[in-house]
UniProtKB/TrEMBL annotation:
It comes from the Bacteria. This is Mycothiol S-conjugate amidase. A mycothiol (MSH, N-acetylcysteinyl-glucosaminyl-inositol) S-conjugate amidase, it recycles conjugated MSH to the N-acetyl cysteine conjugate (AcCys S-conjugate, a mercapturic acid) and the MSH precursor. Involved in MSH-dependent detoxification of a number of alkylating agents and antibiotics. Residues 1-22 are annotated as: Disordered. Binds 1 zinc ion per subunit. Its EC number is 3.5.1.115. HAMAP family: Mca. Keywords: Hydrolase, Metal-binding, Zinc. Its cofactor is Zn(2+). Monomer.
Length: 290
């Protein structure tokens, strides 16, 4: 067993399977310890799969999502921890309604940071991944996931901070997930056309927010993980209430994805070890000394 450990912090159950999933599966398969930490229970997620939109599922959505998450973690080969906060939901409308009082985004940052620091000091990851300051997409829990992960990365190694949350542990590197790239989507869309089919991404590409193009320029690290795309898709399908197996995500054959875009992308946001960018391994620069 390798001494290196990777912790992927995510807002909701299913995020670990749609952002950097093949990378976590790759490192787990290589014998590293990989832990996914899910901050909320996903209780306010909509049921996005028509086949699962049933009264018996609605009545026990929190429980269903725990079962789905356990299955996804098993498929990816990763360890899993819940931080236990309640999904904030994605507010819609103009003006936006206030967030529910009991939700994760309303928990004081100091409090949720301490909870994450406790898990960091216990698992002692060398590398953490999270979302960028935009949350990847503007869900209040995703923004909060960024804030709490950065705060925990900063605080975990300082014995004066949260002295009751375990022995200090310094995480070497912090990354942001950057998987949602226009170039990748365009390549797949073009491949459909080359095969005489109409790809499912036309609307996405047409309405692409140009502000999002800056994310491609922020990528520092491309992790080859094509062999794990099958596991990634199986893990995603395990979140049956959230994922329509007939949705656009699954229409591009895995062989195309493996050939055209065999990597997942990350941005090195903080490093306490010397690095040379770009890089192809999240653990580059870290010594394996247990
Ligand atoms: Zn999410």
């Amino acid at each position: 067993m390798s001494g290196l450990r990777l912790m992927a912090v995510h807002a909701h159950p299913d995020d670990e399977s749609s952002k950097g999933a093949a990378t976590t599966a790759r490192y787990a398969a290589a014998g590293h310890r990989v832990m996914v930490v899910t901050l909320t229970g996903g209780e306010r997620g909509d049921i996005l799969n028509p086949a699962m939109d049933r009264p018996d599922v609605h009545g026990r959505i929190a429980e269903v999502r725990r079962e789905e998450m356990a299955r996804a973690a098993e498929i990816l080969g990763v360890e899993h921890r819940w931080l236990g906060y309640i999904d904030s939901g994605l507010p819609t409308g103009d003006p936006l309604p206030p967030l529910p009082d009991d939700c994760f985004a309303m928990v004081p940052l100091e409090e949720s940071t301490e909870a994450l620091v406790r898990v960091v000091r216990e698992f002692r990851p060398h590398v953490m991944t999270t979302y960028d300051e935009n949350g990847g997409y503007p869900h209040p829990d995703h923004i909060r996931c960024h804030e709490v992960s950065v705060a925990a990365f900063e605080a975990a190694g300082d014995y004066r901070r949260y002295p009751d949350a375990g022995e200090a542990w310094t995480v070497s590197k912090l990354y942001y997930n950057h998987g949602f790239l226009r170039e990748r989507m365009q390549l797949l869309q073009d491949e459909f056309a080359r095969n005489g089919q109409v790809g499912p991404f036309a609307k996405w590409l047409e309405h692409w927010n140009p502000d999002r193009d800056e994310f491609a320029a922020r990528v520092t690290s491309r992790i080859e993980c094509a062999d794990y795309f099958g596991q990634r898709d199986d893990a995603l399908r395990a979140h049956a209430t959230q994922i329509d197996p007939n949705g656009a995500f699954f229409t591009a054959p895995i062989e195309w994805q493996q050939r055209l875009w065999p990597t997942e992308e990350f941005e090195l946001a903080r490093s306490r070890v010397p690095v040379t960018l770009p890089e192809t391994d999240l653990f580059t620069g870290i010594e394996d000394n247990g």
